[in-house]
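Write out the 3D structure for:
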Amino acid sequence: MKIKTKLPYIIIFIMGLITIFIHFYNSPIYSDEKQYWEIGKNIIIKHMLSIDGSNPSAFRPPLIPLILSFLYWIGSSFMFSKYIFIMNYFLTGVILVHFINIMNSLKDKLLIKIILLILALGNPSYIYMTGIMCPQTIQTPLFLISFILLILLSKNYKKRYLIYLGIISGLLGLLAASSAFIVIPIFAYTVYLILNKQFNNINKIFHSTIFVFCAFLIILPYMFRNYHVIHKGYYISLNSGVNLLLGNSSNTTPNSGVTADISYYKLNKRNLSEFDLNEYYSQCAINNIKKEPMKYLVLFFKKFLNGFNNSAFTSIYGTDKIKTLILWF
């Protein structure tokens, strides 16, 4: 692959790297990141997944706290996670170049360029300039690696690629609920490739099982922990209810985000367990939607469109316009 072909992606990578350094000492720390850090500390101090250090918690998925617990264990502050962010950025760049090399061998050059441009400019490593660490930081390289593995699997089918894809899917599952938008297509395309191989039905089932088994081997221990320690049921996190309510409460506006006032719903509910509180919040949100479906349908589209306006600029990038200039020029 010639350097001329690589040049646009090298420029994009350098622009993103400059953006990272601009944000390095001026990145906001969001409430979910603070919770991740507290859970990570309590893994080392209290030997438990807990936000307050007293009660076991399944409010947040465990992978980010586990990474941060290692930082705490080696005596580092969360500032060290910024270095991980930069190392991850370099890793993503290397993976992206490798991805370009593989895709360049395919026939449809226009489609390749469109996909690569979306992957480059839509890279969450550019967008989520957070103070500690967010799931999207880890999702990006895992997604790109899985994409490469799917291409390799389609060109040169090997069982070890199924194992790798299963492990990555399991790790993505322990990152955030949004990983479902990555894991489901990975699973669907993997099964499609298996079904199109000249295998008998037993072999097709066996190969599909390899992928699923490896994914569940990563996820199931945490789900069993939640079943026995938190509440009966199989789940990865218990923040879906509050998120649903924040987006569908009587006080939600198109740009309120996590600042929507849901204090009304919290009255006399402080003694509920984490599991029951999640169920309660979910039911409140569903009741609101059932009561006024058109209002919340319109609100949904307004929230979607509002994601592209200046509120995203102020909440993610701050008020320094040069950051956005460098990022999107």
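The CA atoms of residues 254 and 304 lie 8 Å apart.
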